[in-house]
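To: structure desk
From: M.T.
Subject: fold request, one chain
Message: Could you run this one when you get a chance? Sequence is below, nothing fancy, just the single chain.
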Amino acid sequence: MGDHYFAPRPGTASRPATVDLVLPDLHLRLATDRGMFSPDRIDAGTRILLETVPPPPAHGDLLDLGCGYGPIALTMASRSPQASVWGVDVNERALQAARENAKTGGLDNVRFSRADEIDPSRRYAALWSNPPIRIGKPALHALLLTWLPRLSPGALAHLVVQKHLGSDSLHRWLDQQGYPTERVASRSAYRVLAVTRPDTPDEGTTR
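Reply: Done. Structure tokens follow.
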């Protein structure tokens, strides 16, 4: 691959394609392209997350962190039509595909944006993510410490991480940062972690 999927403007030549997201409650055909995460199929971790998480809150703002072309955010939008869903990514090509996928899927309660386009004071009732592990541990930790404090107190984040890419060490690190974390699913070497935003005064949210 000519670029990492976390490049803001991938230089890899465009080659549009489609993948099918098939879940018990949802079937979407999604536009993809080269230069973004898992363009040839729905990533196994994403599928495991979507098949194991509890329903998202029915109302409020919901967040997909590292949304790519949108399978997680679009599922949240479909399952919670009265909520406002936000998909965040750095990859402009992926964001454009996600916007097209929302339009094609008739899901008008989801928006896809770069992080700097979103009001940092916004608070989220839930966060779902297949986080970009390959950006490296320091960058991943900084990313999580930026967005986890933006959960509403007591709200949950659900993260899916491969065991061999550090799910257990991430679990321990989250606990050490004051975010109580529980492994709620384990399948095919993937772990789904439920991370609680402590019910404490809202501070440090713009780190």
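Reply (cont.): The beta strands are 17-23, 26-32, 61-65, 84-88, 110-113, 124-129, 151-162, 181-187, 190-196. Let me know if you need anything else for the meeting.
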